[in-house]
Amino acid sequence: MDDIPYLLRGVTPVTTESSVLISSSKYLNHPRMRDWMSTITLKRNGSDRPAQAEMYEVVGILNEIQDLDHIEDLFTEERKHNPTLDDWFNQGFQSSYGADDFSDFNEGTLGHIFYRDVIAKNFDLIIYEQPQPKTQYDYFRFRSGQTHDLEHIMTGGDFNYMGELVPAWARITSHFKHFSPELAGELSVLSMFVTLRYTVRTMLHYPQVWPVCQNAVERGMRVGRESGPFFMARYEDVFDLPLEDARAKLGYVGAEYVDTTEPSALWAERT
Fold first, then answer.
1. Which residues share a beta bridge with 242?
2. For 216, phi and psi rounded to 5 degrees?
3. Which residues 6+ apart lie within 8 Å of 77 measured at CB?
4. Residue 192 in contact with residue 204, Cβ under 8 Å?
5. Residue 45 DSSP one-character state
6. CA-to-CA distance for 2 and 8, rounded, in angstroms?
7. pTM for this one?
8. Which residue of 44, 121, 173, 242 sits 20 to 30 Å from the alpha carbon of 250, by its own alpha carbon?
């Protein structure tokens, strides 16, 4: 024992007759996930593979890995003692607005800001196409896709790479505040993987951007800790309100906007 380095004590050699890589982790066992993870955390940025394409890839990978039936069971159990969530599912509300619905809102209102920052800049209102939801998890993801850009505005996250960290970490923190840890974990996997691109890659290749990256994570966490379950918000009720009033009505607390345009361009190697 004295000959074994302290940090290696307790390591048990594992043997297997398997001819392929095998682990107790379903994520590590998935070949595409291993390749995706190593690539998106270790690579530098380049115009040949935009960051948004990396997100599209991981959505499909996670659909193969996550136990969707188990997530359904977790939602069903959560609804038994979470009446707000149960009511949200029972209503099943879906947004039906289009780009033309936002051009007449008064300056300073949420509707005007959404038009200015999303529609006028030709961002798609739908991040990626999803079929009409058939399950609870389908619906949760469907609404998350519909409200993501609005969560940028409400949490103070700019519409660029560093700005993506704010709503993502607000989401993760909020899930663990309002759901059981197991359900929160399943619902936060995508956000966690998506944000790894910005945190790990920044530390490895763009350390001059790290203070901005860290601040964005901290701002998102603050909103998640201090706010209500904003992921169930219905924004149609507040489009005509000034931004701060809209935040107050929907239970957003602690939001702070920071312009991250220049550090995001540096991170993307566009300067």
1. 109
2. -65, -40
3. 180
4. no
5. P
6. 11
7. 0.91
8. 121
Q: Which two tokens stand for residue 85?
A: 């969530």
Q: Which residues are within 8 A (CB) of 106 and not within 5 positions of it... i.e. 6 or more apart?
A: 112, 240
Give backbone dihedrals phi and psi of 28, rounded to 5 degrees, phi first: -70, -30
Residue labelled with tokens 């593979």: 49
- Rounded to 5 degrees, what angle do the CA atoms 47, 50, 56 make? 160
> Which tokens hold the place of 51?
């960051």
Tokens of 122: 């030709």
Dihedral angle computed from the Cα positions of residues 5, 11, 13 and 16, in that order, rounded to the nearest 10 degrees: -150
Expressed in angstroms, the distance from the first to the final Cα of the chain is: 55
Give the single-character DSSP code of 234: -
Q: Output the tens digit of pLDDT for each of the chain's 271 residues.
A: 567 787 778 888 788 888 878 899 999 999 999 999 999 999 999 888 877 788 889 999 999 999 999 999 999 999 999 999 999 999 999 999 888 888 889 999 999 999 999 888 777 655 556 678 999 999 999 999 999 999 999 999 999 999 999 999 999 999 999 999 999 999 999 999 989 999 999 999 999 999 999 999 999 999 999 999 999 999 999 999 999 999 999 999 999 999 999 999 999 998 6
